[in-house]
Design brief:
seven-stranded mixed sheet; 64% helix; alpha/beta; 24 helices; single chain; elongated; 7 strands; 612 residues
């Protein structure tokens, strides 16, 4: 049979289909023969690294029929990768594929093929979600499918109702034009092909099909969340943000981020309350507090440099200090320290630190922060128990509602202390786990992912997690580095406490030095533990609640004055952060949009560590 006679190539992606592949091939041949001349079509079994009898059966079918071919891969290519490779080797002008379970009624095959073969459309796809014929799908399939398709329409601007139906046809010209642009090699391949086809102006035909689910299925954590979700976001960034992301727009976006942070701060910290509180404070001493707090930022840059150095990346302290400023400004906007993601983008785009190492370094830094303030709070509490047990009794009374706070303030403070206790316990647990894991053989991250999923995305996700865990273990396994970073963390948080003590002094409060130091270390440490899980951007609210309750319990200071101190202390620190964020964005020209745009041009897995 001459290749030039072939008009239609039907590719059947097959992975471990020994029970169904023969029936599927024979049924496909019969369906094609019903409306196409003999010799004008071929059936290609795209066998994707199977470990059952599928390859042998495919060989037997290829030997039996001249119009059947077996395309073999020694290793898994992924669903999209297998289709790409088979289509490239196909001979037809119309390239068709459908799932080997034949869930779509084969009576639609002629319509699918002729839609493209006639030249009326460039791409055709069956749909289970068009109003004319909505498929009756179990909830565990239907709900995730509808959610995914809604996300594709919302974020990617698609006009289609069903992107994942395994029943599609492409003209050879459309496939060749789209193939090089499609990055996904797994389950998102279908969606990306269709979305890019629409954006390129190809004529796409979606038509309803009768579809009956075959076999069992489950929502796969790795594929559906890590895989498909991340691919939607990748394409959204490429289509909707990257074309407008440059240094100018990046700087504007960074300034806008800072203004939003300032707006949130002013929203949660009522300016009139701050001004009223500051009216009773010495402005010179408050300004001194801001200067003292500013001294902690270069130390943050030094600490981050030491963490990255353990991972093989030697970077400039001032650049890293600026990156920390930018990310901390983002944390004033995004809850749950979402601004930390900005720093990973910045060091990836500007210093080529892979995302896995960037996030690992952030995780290590965050654990050191939590461990340090937990240690400081625990040390003070132990000291009080040994040398001032009456203050511990007063503290317990305040926590149980016997203090001087109003009812609503008492409830907020108790919530803050509960959060602080939980976070402190988690910090200690995290350190124990990290140090213990540093002495263990690797592989548990991969085993956990493989336990959760058997999808093609497992290898990708497992390799990313392994790299992340390995980087965290690298820092934990080096005793000197662990001690050095720990010592810097103590200095950083000591300056944070001294800043708060300076604010207390600004209010003219006269306390014995021992009481002032103990209260400052305890209130600031617990307040910062409380705001790790913020109910508002920047942790505003929980910090003030915990700080106020502890100051009232441990000193003669009244609740209104303690709250005023907490408000001014937090406002000073946030103001320094915002100013530092603005200066860093302008002088270093780093921002979320510029960093992500730069990072998107490089592949994480292929980068070489600086200094290797």
């Amino acid at each position: 049979m001459s290749d030039r006679q072939i008009e239609v190539s039907v590719v059947l992606p097959a992975y471990n289909e020994e029970d169904t592949i023969e029936h599927t091939v024979r049924t496909t041949r019969d369906a094609l023969g019903a409306f196409l001349p003999a010799g004008s079509y071929e059936v290609v079994v795209a066998e994707d690294g199977c470990d059952d009898r599928t390859p042998e059966i495919a060989d037997e079918l290829a030997a039996e029929f001249d119009d059947v071919r077996h395309f073999h891969s020694d290793e898994r290519l992924g669903r999209g990768g297998a289709l790409d490779a088979a289509f490239e080797a196909a001979h037809g002008d119309v390239l068709v594929y459908f799932d080997t379970d034949m869930a779509t009624d084969m009576r639609h095959l002629e319509h699918l093929v002729e839609s493209v073969r006639s030249g009326e459309y460039d791409v055709a796809t069956g749909s289970r979600w068009m109003s004319e014929n909505v498929a009756d799908r179990p909830a565990k399939r239907g709900v995730p499918s509808r959610g995914f398709n809604f996300a594709a329409r919302l974020f990617l601007g698609s006009d289609l109702r069903d992107h994942q139906c395994g029943f599609k046809a492409f003209s050879c010209e459309a496939f060749e034009a789209l193939e090089s642009a499609v990055e996904d090699q797994h389950w998102f391949w279908d969606t990306e092909m269709l979305v890019r086809a629409q954006r390129r102006g190809f004529r796409v035909h979606e038509f309803p099909v009768d579809w009956e689910p075959k076999g069992d299925s489950k929502v796969d954590l790795v594929r559906d969340v890590f895989g498909m979700g991340s691919q939607v976001l990748r394409c959204w960034w490429e289509f909707s943000v990257a074309p407008y992301a440059n240094r100018r727009t990046g700087a504007l976006a960074g300034i806008a981020l800072t203004l939003v942070a300032l707006g949130f701060m002013l929203f949660y910290l009522d300016p009139s309350s701050v001004l009223a509180a500051m009216a009773d404070a010495d402005p010179t001493t408050v300004a001194l507090a801001a200067v003292i707090y500013g001294l902690s930022w270069p130390l943050r840059g030094v600490r981050y440099r030491d963490i990255l150095a353990e991972l093989g990346y030697w970077e400039d302290v001032w650049f890293l200090t600026g990156a920390v400023f930018v990310s901390q400004t983002g944390n004033l906007v995004f809850p749950m320290r979402g601004g930390d993601f900005i720093r990973a983008y910045v060091v990836k785009a500007r210093r080529h630190v892979p995302y896995t190492s960037g996030f690992a370094s952030l995780a290590v830094e965050r654990v050191f922060d939590l461990l340090t303030i937990t240690f400081l709070a625990g040390t003070v509490l132990l000291g009080l128990a040994l040398f001032a047990p009456e203050q511990v009794t007063a503290l317990l009374g305040a926590v149980t509602g016997e203090g001087a706070l109003a009812a609503d303030g008492q409830q907020s403070a108790e919530t803050a202390l509960a959060v602080a206790g939980l976070v402190g316990a988690l910090a200690i647990t995290a350190v124990v786990v990290i140090v213990a894991s540093a002495r263990m053989d690797g592989g548990y991250a991969r085993r956990a992912v493989e336990w959760a999923s058997d999808d093609g995305y497992v290898e990708l996700v497992a390799s990313v997690l392994e790299s992340f865990v390995s980087d965290v273990q690298t820092v934990a396994a080096d005793g000197s580095a662990f001690a050095r970073v720990g010592a810097t963390s103590v200095l950083v948080w000591t300056i944070d406490v001294v800043t708060a003590i300076c604010v207390v002094v600004a209010f003219g409060i006269d306390l014995p030095l021992s009481t002032l130091l103990a209260t400052g270390f305890f209130a600031v440490s617990v307040g910062n533990l409380a705001k790790v899980l913020p109910l508002s951007p920047g942790g505003i609210g929980l910090y003030e609640g915990a700080f106020t309750l502890l100051v009232v319990a441990l000193t003669p200071i009244t609740a209104p004055v303690a709250l005023a101190v907490a408000i001014v202390d937090h406002a000073v620190k946030n103001a320094v952060t915002v100013v530092g964020g603005v200066v860093s964005m302008l002088t270093l020209n780093v921002s979320l949009t510029e960093a992500v745009e730069g990072a998107s041009t490089e592949t994480v897995e292929t980068e070489t560590k600086t200094g290797d």
